[in-house]
Amino acid sequence: MKKSLESVARFLQSTLGQWLVGLFICLFVLVFSFFFLLDLSIQPRKDTERELERVVLANTPIQAVEDIELYNGQESFYSFYGKDEAGNDLVALVSDQDDTIYLSDLSAGIEQGEAESRAKENGATQIDRAVLGVYQEQLVWEVKSEQTYYLISFESGDFIKKEGL
What we know:
This protein has three helices and eight strands. By secondary structure, the chain is α+β, with helices and mostly antiparallel strands.
């Protein structure tokens, strides 16, 4: 045991050992700094989500928020999904600029899968994601396919617009 400690000490005193220790310390500092900066950059969004969640719970029949999504269109909206006392699935879309709230029962419109199908009918290939948002005062599904966005009316399922390349 004593010999192994002596050999480790000898290695750490060698030039190669010192280089490896220095490299390890530099890598540790870089990785730690990366994660610290990542957390620091995400913090404002998380703070906004928490603040708007309090607004949703205080001003809508949603009892508990189950999921949150972000829509970035002409204006950014956070979509808060939850249930009311009767168990109905609701979504509240809140503007991050003026706390405007759009509330809808999810059964009052088309489902995400149907919106994705409508986008495919209008040229979408691989669907990356679909998120509820607000476009010209109406609820829409924004379906992203590669670098193109398809806006589908939440209430009627009509194709509204295609944006992007």
